[in-house]
């Protein structure tokens, strides 16, 4: 528990300064520009589209099942 209180103290010191936020943003930007390529982005878009479509189909099937149950209960 000693470490938990030390870590908690670090997070309770308030908001980050503008310079600290700026430096973190620059660091993230450098990392992204160094590692994310247009080809990788295209592959990710295809993967996301596939997952999105699967999610839509799943939601639609769930809704249809609910409607079928509701319709069955009415009769």
Structure description:
There is one protein chain. The chain has helices spanning 2-11, 18-35, 38-74. With 75 residues, it is mostly helical. The radius of gyration is 24 Å and the shape is flat. It has a domain at 37-75. The longest helix is centred in the last third of the chain and has 37 residues, at 38-74.
User: How many angstroms does the end-to-end distance come to?
Assistant: 60 Å
Number of strands: 0
Average predicted confidence as pLDDT: 88
Helix content: over 70%
Count of individual helical segments: 3
N-to-C SSE string, H for helix and E for strand: HHH
Proportion of strand residues? under 5%
* Oligomer state of the chains in this structure: single chain
Q: Looking at the structure, what is the overall shape?
A: flat
Biggest beta sheet summary? none
SS-derived structural category: mainly alpha
List the keywords.
mainly alpha; 75 residues
Briefly say what this structure is.
The chain has 75 residues and is mainly α. It contains three helices and no strands.
What is this structure's SSE topology?
Blueprint (H helix, E strand, L loop, with lengths): L1 H10 L6 H18 L2 H37 L1
Keywords: Plasmid
